[in-house]
Design a protein that fits this description.
mainly alpha, two-stranded antiparallel ribbon, 26 helices, globular
Length: 584
């Protein structure tokens, strides 16, 4: 119940709720596959799924996706699968007329055949009866987890740097010792499961539910973190669990080596005595087990019987003598001490690394530092300066056109309306922005004057840094624009060792990016330079002859103005299915 309510909160708060949902469903499926199905599992998962799905549907963005999207399909299969297993349990117990109680081996064969025939029947029925569009396709971001980064079929998703594969250096930076320890910890968790323990003749059975969850979570999170750099965070907590298991096992072994053999023997004897006492029922429990109708029969005792009974009871009540713990010797004792020292030193190094990384990551993300050739430190505060200039020098209802990456910053720091940000789900709208920026100046201006008052571009290349520079994003903008507006040919927009293509050179973005800072760029005709930051990293241009009628229409109707209808009519809605697996 609580897990279902927590899942509903997660749906409202975090887009990664699908990962959590599928992990829980995968864990339930893993327990069934390893023979750990129970009625309690069926009940608990059913409560979680029903409450969570009912709550998720209430979110307008999600709506009926939990019942129709392929990302949610595994959770639904697990829900019906657990109920199917519950029905099979009734057959095993002989509750179904015509079936006797089955032995374990008989039930395994029966369940395997039943699952096989039922699965084939469901697939055949679904393929012949259900409509093709009943279940939606995987989203481009999810597809990116299973195909090459450049073949998700969505150029918008392909353009995001965080969707690229994770480099090995990133694991070393963010995980440090944990990355090298987690394989050992995962192996120890695997060895401690019941099935592997039996295989290794260890003979000790333990509860495996949590262990299987750790193993499943570790495997899935590590795979996804390799596929997409932004998902490295998901791997943090399973890696920490496994690394903790590895370190804890090492410290336990070391502690045992530092205890003398006599202390170990005494401790083992105490454990055996405790186990025997736990297994042997006490006289008191036997007495209390008699029925009220039974009356104890008094038996005469021999002389001194009472004294003997008192003496025995006193002996039983005497506290156990604790074994004296002394330091063990020999090679193993030395090794144990060395392990303690090594873990302590490694822990100190790990703490220093984490503290230093935390300090570096705590620096403002829009304020950077650089060094001159003379070695002087320079603070690069251009982004904040530009956003505050917008805040202090433009009208409150001013609209700013920029690439979607900076939408949140413009809205948060400048308090101005932006045409797109990281939460813009409309692929066609972002394609229109790409068309505006990649079109020749006059053609682009004819669209922009109906949408925005200012255009903001990042131009950090002018200080020798290509990081975040809009010029490097031109091929992505062209691909996104060309995916909707077929009059744009993405192949004409490229950057290579020889320079930029003519199509990029003629574009609105390049002119605003390099006007007055590059001799090759001609005078800008339809835009007026309003602000350039102190290190030329951000440039803001005012749009000439803004169409006020279109501006008033957008304020009132929250849609594209009538003047843009001919442009919008040329747009072809992007089809996720049609572009599956296509290289960019």
């Amino acid at each position: 119940l609580l897990a279902g309510l927590a899942y509903v909160y997660l749906v409202y708060a975090w887009g990664g709720y699908i990962f959590v949902l599928n992990m829980i469903a995968g864990h339930a499926g893993c327990l069934c596959a390893t023979g750990h199905f129970t009625v309690n599992l069926q009940k608990s998962y059913s409560l979680f799924y029903v409450i969570g799905t009912a709550g998720a549907i209430t979110l307008p963005i999600v709506k009926w996706k939990p019942l129709r999207d392929m990302e949610h399909l595994a959770a639904m299969i697990a829900f019906f699968g657990l109920h199917y297993f519950g029905i099979l349990e009734l057959f095993r117990l002989g509750y179904i007329p015509g079936f006797k109680k089955m032995k374990k081996s008989e039930f395994h064969r029966f369940r395997l055949n039943a699952c096989l025939y039922t699965g084939v029947a469901i697939v055949a029925l679904g393929a012949s009866v259900l409509p093709e569009d009943l279940v939606g396709p995987l989203s481009a971001r999810v597809r990116g987890l299973f195909v090459a980064h450049t073949k998700t079929g969505n150029p918008l998703v392909d353009s995001v740097a965080e969707h690229q594969a994770t480099s090995p250096a990133m694991y070393q930076i963010y995980f440090h010792w944990v990355f090298y320890l987690f394989p050992a910890g995962a192996l120890l968790v695997l060895v401690s499961t019941t099935h592997v323990s039996k295989l290794l003749n260890r003979g000790k059975q333990t509860r495996d539910e949590a262990k299987y969850f750790v193993l499943c979570l570790t495997a899935v999170a590590y795979y996804f973190s390799q596929r997409m750099s932004r998902l490295v965070l998901l791997f943090a907590f399973p890696a920490s669990i496994c690394a903790g298991v590895a370190v804890g096992t090492a410290l336990d072994w070391s502690a045992q080596q530092l205890v003398s053999d006599e202390a170990k023997a005494d401790s083992d004897d105490e454990e055996e005595e405790d186990e025997k006492e736990a297994k042997t029922p006490s006289k008191k429990s036997k007495d209390t087990a008699t029925t009220p109708a039974e009356t104890p029969v008094a038996t005469p005792q021999k002389d001194g019987g009472e004294d003997d009974a008192e003496t025995k009871s006193k002996k039983k009540k005497l506290p156990k003598k604790k074994a004296a713990v002394s330091v063990g010797g020999g090679l193993t004792g030395v090794l144990g001490a060395l392990v303690f020292l090594a873990v302590g030193y490694a822990g100190w190094v790990f703490f220093e690394h984490c503290h230093g990384l935390a300090v570096r990551m705590s620096d403002p993300q829009i304020i950077g530092t650089a060094w001159t050739k003379a070695g002087d430190r320079v603070i690069l505060d251009d982004y904040r300066e530009a956003y505050w200039w917008l805040r202090d020098n433009t009208a409150e209802d001013a609209r700013v056109l920029s690439w979607w990456d900076y939408g949140y910053q413009i809205n948060g720091l400048a308090n101005r309306t932006t045409l797109a940000d990281g939460n813009t789900w409309n692929h066609e709208h972002i394609a229109l922005i790409g068309k505006c920026l990649m079109s020749p100046e006059e053609e682009g201006w004819k669209i922009i004057r109906h949408l925005a008052d200012y255009v903001l571009v990042w131009s950090s290349q002018h200080i020798g840094s290509g990081s975040g520079d809009d010029l490097m994003k031109c091929p992505h903008m062209a691909r996104i624009g060309g995916s909707v507006f077929k009059d744009m040919d993405p192949k004409r927009y490229y950057i290579n060792k020889q320079g930029i293509s003519q199509a990029i050179f003629d574009s609105v973005l390049y002119k605003l990016h390099s006007f007055r800072l590059s001799e090759s760029v001609p005078e800008v005709t339809y835009f007026e330079e309003a602000y350039t930051s102190s290190h030329n990293m951000v440039r803001i241009f005012a749009v000439k002859d803004v169409d006020e009628e279109s501006k008033d229409f957008c304020k009132t109707h929250r849609e594209y103005p009538p003047a843009l209808k001919p442009i919008i009519a040329k747009a072809k809605a992007f089809d996720q299915k049609a572009h599956w697996g296509q290289a960019r």
